[in-house]
Structures are given as structure tokens and as C-alpha cells.
Amino acid sequence: MAQLVYGMITSLDGYTSAAEGDLGTGAEDEEVHTYIGDRFRSVGTFLYGRRMYETMVFWETAHTLPDVPPHIEQYARDWQAAEKVVYSTTLGSVSSERTRIERSFDPDAVRALKAGADHDLSIDGPHLAAQAIAAGLVDEYHLFRTTSVVGGGTRFFPDSVRLDLELVEQRAFASGLVHSHYRPRR
């Protein structure tokens, strides 16, 4: 069975987006971007909410930008090769290949998707991930923490769920960003 992976860049205090400003520094260098690309290359399906999809659809054409660095081109090619499911009640159409819209998040349908998948799935966006976490669907958590404390915004973990996690691995980068990989204790 495939794993459902949830990973995002967060502030040091655990926010995926800040109430004001950005998440700070640490995530924009080539070393970090290459590492994230390598880490998620095994993902065969991305599950997105509308807002996250609208951010990520950039990768559909990123490889066509002038003077695109190899690590950006590779990430774009990997993203394009994956299936994408966008959960939205408002999105009328998609602008990327291998993409479909679902009008609601159905935990049983995601369980079936995991059971039938040859490659891991990634759930991206804290609101959509909160639903998967509440349903007990997430198998791995990847926090890519910047060096900034932002004091508020949208949290990586939902407030309404208790999780007991074990640290699988951790890596610090020269930029200050720290990757922490967790799995639920079973």
C-alpha cells in the first residue's frame, strides 16, 4: 500500500503561512530545493486544495522559463508526470495535465486510492491535510522549518487532533532550514 505524505515549509513556530509577511528565510536555496525534489520524487499523486493547486500549477510550465536551473527543470518534470487531484467546490476547470477535480474530500476514496497506488501520495495544504489527519490517513509528516517565528497564521497541524509521532530523521541545511521527518507511533 502507498503512503500518504504531508509535507510543507513552515515557520519555526509551525505556521505554513504567516498572518503578516512571509515565512522567513531558509527554503529558497538550491540545496534545499534539490533535497525537497529528491525527497518527493516517489510521489505519484498529489492531493491539493484549490489554493495550493493554484500555487503549484506554476510547475506545469516552469521548465519553459529562460535559463531555468537543472534542479527547477527536474522538479517541474516530476510534478508534470504525477497525477493531481484538486478538491474544490469553486474551481471550474484545471490548467494542468493529469489533473482532475473532486468536489469533496472523501476519506474512504483516499483509502482506496492509497490501497491501489503503486507510488506514494502527497497531501498538500493545511486545510485539506487537516481532514486527512483527522481521518487517520497520513503516514508521514515532513516539516521544513525556516528560521523565523511569525507568531500567527495557518498552522501545519490542526488544533483539533492529538498525534503521537516518532522522529524518523532530521537534517539541517546551511541556510538554517531544518527538515524533520515524523511517522505516527503505532
Radius of gyration, in angstroms, nearest whole number: 16 Å
Largest sheet: 8 strands, mixed
Q: Order of strands across the biggest sheet?
A: 5-4-3-6-1-7-10-9
Mean pLDDT: 95
Question: What is the string of SSEs from the N terminus onward?
Answer: EEHEHHEEHEHEEEE
| CATH-defined topology | Dihydrofolate Reductase, subunit A
| Count of the separate structural domains | 1
Taken from the alpha-carbon principal axes, the silhouette is: globular
Number of strands: 10
> Cα distance, first to last residue?
16 Å
The name of the CATH superfamily reads Dihydrofolate Reductase, subunit A
Report the structural category: alpha/beta
Uncertain residue ranges: none
Query: How helix-rich are the residues, as a percent range?
Result: 25-40%
CATH architecture: 3-Layer(aba) Sandwich
Quote the beta fraction: 25-35%
- Oligomeric state of the chains? single chain
GO molecular function, one term: 5-amino-6-(5-phosphoribosylamino)uracil reductase activity
Organism: Modestobacter italicus (strain DSM 44449 / CECT 9708 / BC 501)
InterPro entries: DHFR-like_dom_sf, RibDG_C, Riboflavin_Biosynth_HTPR
Pfam families: RibD_C
What keyword list fits this structure?
186 residues, alpha/beta, Dihydrofolate Reductase, subunit A, eight-stranded mixed sheet, two-stranded antiparallel ribbon, 5 helices, 26% helix, RibDG_C, 5-amino-6-(5-phosphoribosylamino)uracil reductase activity, Bifunctional deaminase-reductase domain protein, DHFR-like_dom_sf, Riboflavin_Biosynth_HTPR
